[in-house]
Design a protein that fits this description.
Layout: E1 2-10, H1 17-22, E2 28-34, E3 37-40, E4 54-63, H2 67-72, E5 77-83, E6 88-95
Length: 97
């Protein structure tokens, strides 16, 4: 088992058409899941093109395996976009090596 700390820098600017169908002025936020921990970004007000300039810090991440094998095949990072008013996920991005 190897212990790490990590950070995820979020800067997304994208048009989310699925948000526009349910709400013409959504209040988006993102949830970032890494291993068994998740964090959320700040909520942005009334935008279809959210842009975050935010770093999320993950402390005491425990990953089982050798450091070299973890580096070769790191765990997925999942980013889900939500509308704050409805709490409905509109988009899921999986980041792999």
């Amino acid at each position: 088992m190897v212990s790490f700390w990590g950070s995820v820098y979020i800067y997304l600017e994208l048009f989310t058409p699925t948000l526009s169908h349910s709400d013409p002025s959504p209040d988006p936020f993102a949830r970032v899941v890494f291993l068994n921990q998740s964090q959320v970004t700040e909520k942005l007000e009334k935008t279809l093109c959210p842009t975050w300039d935010q770093t999320l810090i993950y402390e005491q991440l425990e990953i089982h395996g050798e450091a070299t094998s973890i580096a070769e095949k790191p765990p997925e990072i999942i980013i889900e976009l939500f509308d704050h008013d409805t709490f409905v996920s509109t988009c899921t991005l999986k980041i792999k090596k």
